[in-house]
Amino acid sequence: IAMIPKLQRTGLVDLRETYLYRTFEKYRDIMLEEVSDRVTVRIIEGVQDEIRTSQEVTRRIGEEVIAPQREALIEAVTHRLQEATAVAYEDQQADFQEYLDGVIEDAVDRNREISTIASLPGIGRPMATLLENAISDIVFNVVDQMVTDVCSLENDQAITQVTSVSAEALMSPKYDQRLNQLARSLVLQSLDVIKDHVQIRRWKEQDPLSVSPDSAPSHS
Q1: Mean pLDDT across the stretch 130-158?
Q2: Does 217 fall in a domain?
Q3: What pLDDT, in 10s, does the model give residues 42-73?
Q4: Do 179 and 62 contact (CB within 8 A), yes or no?
Q5: What global pTM score does this model have?
Q6: What's the structural domain count of the chain?
Q7: Is residue 49 in some structural domain?
Q8: Domain limits at 155?
Q9: Is residue 77 part of a domain?
Q10: In a domain, 24, yes or no
């Protein structure tokens, strides 16, 4: 037995290819994984307890993590709003135009001046209809251009301004408590996800030992 380590070093014997060594190696790795996972989970749970009971942690998260990323958050939210608005408007453009036509038609019918024009014999009704269509086209084109401009990445000042004002309001002392609660909730949920991931027993997903006692090399 005393010669085995020397034989292993010289390469005359390779115990790593034996079933016994592979079995030992597998259960050693399982033990190390289980121990490290439990230690990691304990650490995460300790951090979660600290976050739940301490206002200092969430205050620092808000001031040192969220606040410095304000401009990046504003830019990300702005572009996301632009993309969402563009997609929603494209899907509903025909319905919006139909709705706008109906609204303008009702408004024109209630307008006394256009009603007076429509009452003129001969050309009155065609002129009123022409005016109604012209108004509808003008209003739709104006709104359509406004939405297109708002959704343009090269012309995002309006949404950026709205997002910036919203961010400033959120970061104001008036919303400190809500921001702290939001930060606490986000961090706790993120740690729960990490904890669940850590608790996955990856050794169960690995292939079983490829060397069995029957297939292990025999030495005569």
Answers
A1: 76
A2: no
A3: 888 888 887 777 777 777 777 777 777 777 77
A4: yes
A5: 0.42
A6: 1
A7: no
A8: 69-171
A9: yes
A10: no
